[in-house]
Amino acid sequence: MTNQNLPGIAILPISEFVTHRSKLFAQMTENSVAFFSAASEVTRSNDTEFAFCQNKSFYYLTGFNEPDAMLMLIKQASSEQSILFSLPKDKKHEIWHGRRIGQEKACQHYQLDQCFTLDEQSELVPQYLNGIKQVYFAFDDENLSQHVFGYLAQVRASTRQGEKVPTQLIDVSPMIDELRLIKSTNEIELMRQVNTISGLAHQRAMQITSAGLFEYQIENEILHEFTHHGARYAAYATIVAGGDNANILHYTDNSARLVNNDLLLIDAGGELSGYAADITRTFPVNGKFTEPQKALYQLVLNAKVAVISAIKPGTTFAKLNNIANEYLTRGLLDLGILSGDLTELVKEKASKKYFIHGLGHWLGLDVHDVGDYHINDNKEQCREFTPGMVLTIEPGLYMPLDDMDIAEQWRGIGIRIEDNIVVTKQGCENLTANCPETITDIETLMKR
Ligand SMILES: [Mn+2]
Fold this sequence. Notes:
Elements: H1 14-27, E1 32-37, E2 43-45, E3 48-49, H2 56-62, E4 70-76, E5 79-86, H3 91-97, H4 102-109, E6 114-117, H5 121-129, E7 134-137, H6 142-157, E8 168-171, H7 173-181, H8 185-208, H9 215-228, E9 233-234, E10 239-242, E11 263-268, E12 270-272, E13 275-276, E14 279-284, H10 291-309, H11 317-334, H12 342-347, E15 390-393, E16 396-399, E17 413-416, E18 419-423, E19 428-430, H13 439-445
Parallel strand pairs: 1-7, 5-6, 7-8
Antiparallel strand pairs: 1-4, 2-3, 4-5, 9-12, 10-11, 11-14, 12-13, 15-18, 16-17, 18-19
Helix pairs in contact: 1-2, 5-6, 8-9, 10-11
């Protein structure tokens, strides 16, 4: 099976990473150095590891996907240098564990100024730090922090030979996070593609789902569709939650059997060249919504559509939250799940009793991507959207089976619908365009 909509697997051109570095260089002060650390492999059990996942900020600046490397950016005397320290070529190790690019090829391929082996760090880094004023690194990276302080101590020890020690340390995270928050045309195209792939995976899940199957069997169908279209990994642990399991927000056990007349909530997104999709759909196990399921589903869908239609430059998550709350509160009142005065209920955000998580989040290299939501001291998410931001919109309603405050017909229903949106100059583009969401479209796709 080939997909006509996907001409080829997208990867970012190396020039994209060079551009990311020059954007960071532009913000660094004269006579400064910035350090970025690659991720290390993580043990799963004994001598086996989890699939390697690169540190996303390191990846954003390099495109380099080997573990344990370090990037050093030097801005001095109006010159900008990108230096990579990485694992050496090692024939024996590579036969067992996989290829390494080595320093010479890395330098060419990733368009870096110099590449050295990891062993050369301890000698070279202190030399580069001589005469530097400011050092940037991520303060929450304990391992890297230790290394940086070690290098600084080394330079300090040589001050009698005339070495000049950097005296200012700056947390680089806010700078890199802000850069990552605004996506380029290339990044948006990549996210468009991983959304298309993920939408196909959700379609496959809808077509295959039936009572009696296990949740993890549906998970497997989703992963199959991701890899079939070139997304080698899921961006996060896939949630396949039948019936009341949907009321556990991060349910990844996926071990239960699917039950006739239950809903199935699937939160799944692929990862393409490091970039994530994050899509949720909820549909009936047997392909036909019951009346109570229909009522709640339509309500969540209406709220989602209303929220997305309000997304444009200048809008904020706080404003969108108000729209979602108004829709959901009014709907819950109409269905008799809430009671009281509409204006009062909207004011006290009564819908939050059943809509228990945030409306959305930034999306990019990380599924919960970096970037400030507040920008000023206000506690509300009042940062104005600008073109190039990518975010999720994911209203939901959760009615646990053991909640005796609600009528029996609603109990055990958990619904979330989640799309990925890019803010454009004119308004927004919904990247999750191929994933069925209306009751008619879902029931038609699932007809057997
Ligand atoms: Mn999400």
